[in-house]
Amino acid sequence: MKRTPAARLVDIREMIDAVAAMVENVDLRTYRKDLKLRLAVERCVEIVSEASRHISATDKAGFPAVPWPEIAAIGNKLRHEYNRVDDLIVWQVATEALPALRPTIVRLLESASPSES
Predict the structure, then answer these.
(1) 15, 19, 62, 82: which one has the fewest Cβ atoms less than 10 Å from its Cβ?
(2) Counting beta carbons within 10 angstroms of the beta carbon of residue 87, is it exposed (0 to 12), middle (13 to 18) or buried (19 or more)?
(3) What distance in Å separates the CA atoms of residue 54 and residue 22, rounded to the nearest whole number?
(4) What is the DSSP string of 36-105?
């Protein structure tokens, strides 16, 4: 079943919130030591990346400060260059980039037409 753009936005918001909950009260050192946590965060980032590819160019154009190409690209890095994943970069995505992206996703969801839900 084909997922609507609004459903993809919900996926992104849910993954951002999941990552926020996972890294709450965790520091980088603890993150680096916890394989399950790293893998879970990486998977959430992959989902955000994939779902972002289904946001329309028009919607993306309304938020030119968002690094849409980089969001799409990080999923490929995690999937295809898994042996070169830098924990610090994923940590920065988890603790800085995703929280910064959330308000944009919420605004896009608020403007999504009911037929897209």
Answers:
(1) 82
(2) middle
(3) 25
(4) HHHHHHHHHHHHHHHHHTTS-HHHHHT-TTS-HHHHHHHHHHHHH-GGG--HHHHHHIIIIIHHHHHHHH
| DSSP code, position 113 | -
In contact, 109 and 9? CB cutoff 8 Å? yes
Domain boundaries, the chain: 5-109
Indicate the residue type of 1. Answer: M
For the segment 70-95, what is each residue's pLDDT rounded down to a tens digit? 999 999 999 888 888 899 999 999 99
pLDDT tens track for 36-63: 999 999 999 999 999 999 999 999 999 9
Q: Which residues lie below 8 Å from residue 56, measured CB to CB, with a gap of 6+?
A: 5
